[in-house]
Amino acid sequence: MSETHKRRRAVLAALGAALLAGSVQAQDPAIRIVVSLPAGGGVDAVARYLGQQLGTELQRTVVVENRPGGSGTIAARTVMNAPAGQTTLLAGGNQEITIAPHLLKDPGYRPLQTLTPVLQVGVVPSVVVAKAGADASPAVLLQGLKKRQDLSIGIPGRATPMHVALEDVAHQIGGQFLAVPYKGAPDVLAGVMSDSTQYGAVGYSAAKPLLDAGSLVPVAVLAQQRSALLPQVPAIGEQDLKQQDLPQVWYGFFMPGKADRDEVDRISAAFERLLGREPVRARLQALGVQVTGLQQAAFSQALQAESAYYRNAILRYKVQ
After folding, report:
1. Tens of pLDDT along 245-282?
2. CB 3.0–4.6 Å: which of 15, 202, 254, 256 could bond 115 by disulfide?
3. Is residue 17 part of a domain?
4. Can you give the CATH number for the domain in which 60 is found?
């Protein structure tokens, strides 16, 4: 056989192998990520970034879609009812997993039974903010709550983690406040800037641009300890509150309870590898997320405790 024929056969063999590999990869099922909030929000940014990284890690196509509404229950039900054999993930947070089931008469699912926790990506500090120039400190905030007058605080919707945490704090000190619900964090911040409310309570990632610009000032983090992302901002728990187990806003991934166990473990392991890489952690921190990387067992245990907290708090404070 001539050298020309040998080279031709080698090229054809290599081409055939490449086509076969491409065919196998193309046959791998796509991964579908359903986001419980509108595009442009914090959980959406995290889902799209990690979705891209996950696709590269597993050499699979990842499709991200938003299904907002119903306090996150629309997205949760979409994932719960995903067709068998389809790899579908829910990218969401507290609202649809540990709050809505206790707030709505019939959310249409039982999240801790019908959804499988895959990974908690991290927590997002809930921060109370005021307009620049205001006399803002945790002590001033608590004093305003104790006066039981028209202290107004903007919140990104009723029964959000920020709303429940503020109700908890107010009841602990015998105070009260006027909760002003908005459609989302941008509207809360606009309300503070326009003096429609005295304070606003939002996720740090939403407030960060205005805080960095000096248009807003941080008053307190709604937590028992200071956040690593905002070490200079006092935690509300530093004010000698009786109860300090205020749950944090978190972002995480879930799969249907009926999902193939091997696929759940495969996705979980891929996320674990990704969160172990410094560039990925740095990017998430830039998005305002303090990475926790809680794996399935630890995440599930944390959800059980948090669900019990919200059930009791919603009943005790008559949150609606």
Report:
1. 788 899 999 999 999 999 999 999 999 999 999 999 99
2. 254
3. no
4. 3.40.190.150
